[in-house]
Write a structure and sequence with these properties.
Strand 4, helix 4 and strand 5 form a beta-alpha-beta unit. The chain has 243 residues and is α/β, with parallel strands linked by helices. It is globular and about 45 Å long. Strands 3-2-1-4-5-6-7 form a seven-stranded parallel sheet, with helices on both faces. The chain is built from seven helices and seven strands, in the order E-H-E-H-E-H-E-H-E-H-E-H-H-E. Helix 1 packs parallel to helix 2 and helix 4 runs parallel beside helix 5.
Length: 243
């Protein structure tokens, strides 16, 4: 796959799941990476794998729920690489519960991680993305593209809001050469999916679901398209349908 060698890519939520899979695939293509995750230990494991493949891998272990950490990530990226070609938002938080019983603070937490963080980080890195005619990827969820089910109100609300951020950003920057992609994965075999199954009280079998590498492959193929084309939305689900 052409077009990724030497490109500077920032990935949040890179310490596991879809973010990790994207990081490894881009490392294999020779991209220069800035990886973020909350767990320094998990991020180190991903970095060790990526550094066997990529010429440059930098890490920033921090909880981006704090604005000062988001700003520090942006500053560190620009200090190390001087610019950004691709920004991938893969960080996410799920808290299940009914509207009647779930504290509004749980909604606020999901909004901050799932919407506020991508909004602010994009804003901080947008001048560089514009100057390089870069690309932005929002890893959303099937919950951001369909009506909310019972117990999913807060999470779905945050993901619908994230879709609005991506769509609005695209309208603002498309004519300036920046492509904006949202991917809506169905149930994917990640740590978050394990949490979802605990909430639902169901046994978890990762083999039944999308694999993180499946989603990563879709993202890379969309990003690699010639500049005569743009993918705006990708909906991908497990082969067995909505499980």
């Amino acid at each position: 796959m052409r077009g990724f060698r030497g490109k500077v890519v920032v990935i949040t939520g890179a310490s596991g799941g879809i973010g990790e899979a994207i990081a490894i695939q881009l490392a294999r293509e020779g991209s220069r990476l800035m990886l973020n995750g909350r767990s320094a230990e998990k991020l180190d494991l991903v970095t060790e794998r990526a550094r066997d493949l990529s010429p440059v891998v930098e890490t920033f272990a921090a909880d981006l729920a704090e604005d000062d950490q988001v700003r520090a990530l942006a500053d560190r990226t620009l200090a190390v690489f001087s610019g950004v070609d691709i920004l991938i938002h893969s960080v996410g938080l799920f808290v299940g519960g009914s509207l009647a019983a779930t504290p509004v603070e749980d909604l606020d937490r999901q909004y901050r991680v799932n919407v506020h963080v991508p909004y602010l980080l994009t804003q901080l890195l947008l001048p560089s993305l514009l100057s390089r005619q870069g690309q932005v990827v929002f890893v959303n969820s099937g919950a951001g593209a369909s009506p909310a089910g019972a117990g999913w109100v807060g999470y779905a609300a945050s993901k619908h809001a994230l879709r609005a951020v991506a769509d609005g950003l695209r309208e603002e920057v498309n004519k300036q050469g920046v492509r904006v992609l949202t991917i809506f994965p169905g149930r994917t075999a990640t740590a978050m999916q394990e949490e979802v199954h605990r909430f639902e009280g169901r046994p978890y079998d990762p083999e039944r679901f999308l694999q993180p590498g499946d989603v990563a492959a879709m993202v890379l193929h969309a990003l690699a398209l010639p500049r005569t084309a743009e993918v705006t939305d990708i909906h991908v689900r497990p082969m067995r349908g909505a499980l």
